[in-house]
Amino acid sequence: MSSDNRVFVCSVSELAPGSMKLVEREEGNLTVYNVDGAFFVTEDRCSHGLASLSQGEIIGDEIECPMHFGSFRIATGEPVAAPCSVAIRTYKVAMDGDQVFALV
Ligand code: FES
Predict the structure, then answer these.
(1) What is the pLDDT of residues 16-74, one digit of tens each?
(2) Domain count of the fold of the chain
């Protein structure tokens, strides 16, 4: 049995390819991304400091942090550019019609 909770993060129509959005939650903010039509969710906070990744920039399949311009691969959370060295958390995504959910 899965203990995953579904958290609504956006509708497909509200997030164009190449864009992202902050999802505020008491348990920790998330960022939802549309990368070439595929949706991904990560934690919003950079693992290097107190920056919000949703304020950064999507470059290809990576998210660049707005603070020190380190970056992570969006699909896996792995760090790909210094000074980031610790992976960010990623979440599975479930689609239901036009609705996108993160499994948290
Ligand atoms: S806080 Fe994100 S790279 Fe430093």
Answers:
(1) 999 999 999 999 999 999 999 999 999 999 999 999 999 999 999 999 999 999 999 99
(2) 1
**1 in any annotated domain:** no
Q: Does 70 sit in the ligand 1 pocket, CB within 6 Å?
A: yes
Output the 3-class SS for the chain: CCCCCEEEEEEHHHCCCCCEEEECCCCCCEEEEEECCEEEEEECECCCCCCEHHHCEEECCEEECCCCCCEEECCCCCEEECCCCCCCCEEEEEEECCEEEEEC
Structural domain harbouring 93: 6-103
Residue 60 near ligand 1, beta carbon < 6 Å: no
Q: CATH code at 93?
A: 2.102.10.10
Q: Give the residue, by CA position, lying nearest to ligand 1 atom 1.
A: 49
pTM of the model: 0.95
